[in-house]
Amino acid sequence: MTAPAPRPRDLSPAETGFVRQKPVPWLNPGLLAGTAVRVLLAYLFGGYLDKRELQAALPDRAFDHSAADELWFDYTADVGDGFDATYSVASLLARPELMLDDGRLLPRGSLLVLGGDQVYPTASSPAYENRWKGPYRAALPDLAVDTPSLYALPGNHDWYDGLTAFLRLFAQGDTIGGWRTRQARSYFALELPHRWWLLAVDIQLSTYIDEPQLDYFRRVAERLTPEDRIILVPAQPSWVKTHERPDAYDSLDYFIRTVIEPTGARIPLLLAGDMHHYARYTGPGPDGRGRQLVTCGGGGAYLVGTDHLPEQVAVPPEETIARRRSTPQRYELAAAYPSQPASRRLGWQVFARLPRRNPGFVGLLALMQTLLMLAFVTSHDRWVTPATVTGVAAVLAGTAVFTLVLGVRTRKHMMAAAAHAVPHVALAAGGAAVWSALPLSELPNPWATLLAFAVYGPVIGLLDTWVVCGYLLIARYADVNVNELYAGLGIEDHKSFLRFHIGRDGSLTVYPVAVERVAHRWRADPGGAPGSPWIVPEDPLRATLAEPPVLVDRPRRAAG
């Protein structure tokens, strides 16, 4: 009788150099409070801690990758969350060849561009190590030859420590496994074959572009001619955020008008992450030739569905009050992954997923509801007492913070915050009536109060969590708290990244790679060939296309 095969062992943190992380539970109270404080500090003092001004003393060269007749390169964003999703994408990016479900074989990119938010929830050296650097090093260990270059653009989460950890990691010219970092600043310009360029612009926390950065790109622009074509990469897809903030696109529009347009160079593609899905808008562009607006933030963070995306956007928006702007152009939504109907169906999972993934949030609501119920019970049929007024005010404050957490203060959001408070107060009043009718409420204190927290609290906490879930499902149709809905869902599947190909004829094709299901079971493979991953999935990872390959720009001969 043969002995059973030994069970595959895990690599320990001492062997891998990092600790595997679970997905961030975004709605847990401690994380919410801590992140809110860091975000507030970043927005209050970000201008004083802006390291972009200091970067003027660092090397300012563009990076030349134009020698080859053709080039494959990759783009991903929003990567540093839980291990399973982050490593699933990293392992696909690292493969020497990526086999798609339709039989296509795509070579590994010679460049990897990270589009922002390389770590969650806030930037620090340990967070980068455990949530991004460690998994990517394990996916592609050291290579003796053909080391791909890596460039990273900071997103808002990278900025929450003033960019300190980001610059230490990405701007020192180090190797991270088989990838080598080359940039010296938080922004960069890449010269690609056939007069293609990739310009990555750091618009710190959606504010403005600093003068040293503008000077850097102006020097790059001196090399541009009407024959050049540009992939412009900001950290956020401001073209879909202008319906709430008409000024969201102003900085990018200023950059295009003052730096790029005077050269005559074209911008066939604007590309950003930040929103955790894949979406593509297409339109004529200001020169009458096609321009694509692509969002691809599916590198590892929780999925944000596409059901709230407008079918059409005007870029720049007609509502902006900027004194100077480009002529608005209309772009149509051409593709979305996951699809809008699929996203709506996923939203209904919130009733099961939010309580399970965010137990601290359930506990917070249980505490709030129990205290408010006790305030109503002890008011002795008088609805207006100091205790009830304080409790209702606390509920209003909580729903206001929850609705306005991103700083949007339109009338629509104010009304949503007020409407959200109503069912919470009504639930507390109803709970008080039910609790008063039970014999437990007749026990002497402190037993009645203790039993309220022990018996009533867990039940009402779950019911109130479902009230929040119902609010989120309704609010998304008004484009309110959409991010909170999907943060509560915490869906790790439906990841995406882009593989680009600049052909020998100068054409640019985008392959939007989709990963329907990330891997959750892994085994160590420490004895693999040099450059092979340290950790591999027990079940094969499957990759497909979110839509057919997109020809961004035709060969230069045909375009002329």
Automatic annotation (TrEMBL):
Gene3D superfamilies: 3.60.21.10. It comes from the Bacteria. The chain crosses the membrane at residues 26-45, 360-377, 383-406, 418-438, 450-474. Coiled coil: none annotated. Keywords: Membrane, Transmembrane, Transmembrane helix. This is Metallophosphoesterase. InterPro entries: Metallo-depent_PP-like.
